[in-house]
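Handout, section B. The chain below has 401 residues.
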Amino acid sequence: MTDFTIASFNVKNLIGAGQEYYKYQEYTPEEFAWKQDWMADQLLTMDADIVGFQEIFEESALASVIAEADKRGIATNEITIPDRSKRYHKRAIFRKLAYRPYTDAQLAFASNANDGGPGQRRPGLAVLSRFGFKGAPEIIQKLDEPLDIPLQALGGGDAGSYRVERLSRPILKVRVPVGGEVITVFNCHLKSKLGEFVRPEGAEFAPESDLTAYDPVGRALGAMRAALRRMAEAWVLRREIVKEIELGRPVMVLGDFNDGEHAVSSEIISGEAPFKNYSWMLRHNAKHANDRYSRQENEQITEGVESVRLHSAEKLFVRKSLRDMVYTSAFGGVFESIDQIFLSRHFHPDYADRIADMEYFSVLNDHLTDGSHPEAPYNKLASDHGQIIAHMRLKQDDQDN
């Protein structure tokens, strides 16, 4: 039987002590020790087989957290798991309690191509896998060819284009062998909602960043730039997802989307939901009022849409449980899920040829307190994101049994 778990963990600015990552921001040795301690506890609780990490500045800092989690997990096993001399040591309850160290796991790290010097650092990504990787991990950030997105004016005519040459943060693509399957996993961290403001040539700062001269219209334009960049990055990710699915490969996409499931950027990643019945729809080349798609074409179109569509693990869980909401972010009184695990239909319960079922979905969000934290001033050290874990079971094992 092959059960496995896959998780997403935005750690919030992981870097060693004494290094200025953003302007005037760095950890003292005590603060880094606190953050390492907190993260190790979270990783121990998650105990996930595959973990996608976001906001990693240094691979070595993450490696130290993993080592600390293993140290604690091994110590816990010695206390809670009976040795082989006990008749009951094989009971299932003890298998579930046991922590599996990452001793033989593989860690893939993607540094950020936009990373700068002290005060101008930019975080990367990592994927940890107890199953290792098939082939070399791939980093997608600097595009081989610039992406020019043509825009059309209403009423016709050219309205210019939006160009993307590199992403704000890398996308890390790995292929993970699980049981008899190989799953393509994408880990991403899309552009945040933080506004992008243009600094005039020779100026010390962008005018919109001066809050004493608050410019609501300019700041709204900055938010629009950020949204445009986030959606362009979502499309780059979508292009890579479709390539994998068209090769017949099951896909999981996880990370910090910086948007909810129904935001445009998230729907770009997941793909369209099929229309109820395309036989009702006027054909793309209609010459008459009754020129509609045939029933056969309806089935063809629906299959074309469904075959490359992704599904939210969170929403699949809500559908089968009594839980009515999950949240991974709390800010300004708004509780929402901006961290996601999306699954290709290879994992959808309604797909007859699925390779696995999701048994459960966990979220660790008790540390999210909408800006206040009982252990202040250490609130800046705990992550401002919840951690999510999808619990999967391969179907091939059910068939073998």
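Note. The chain has one domain: 3-271+308-400. Compare this with the example in section A.
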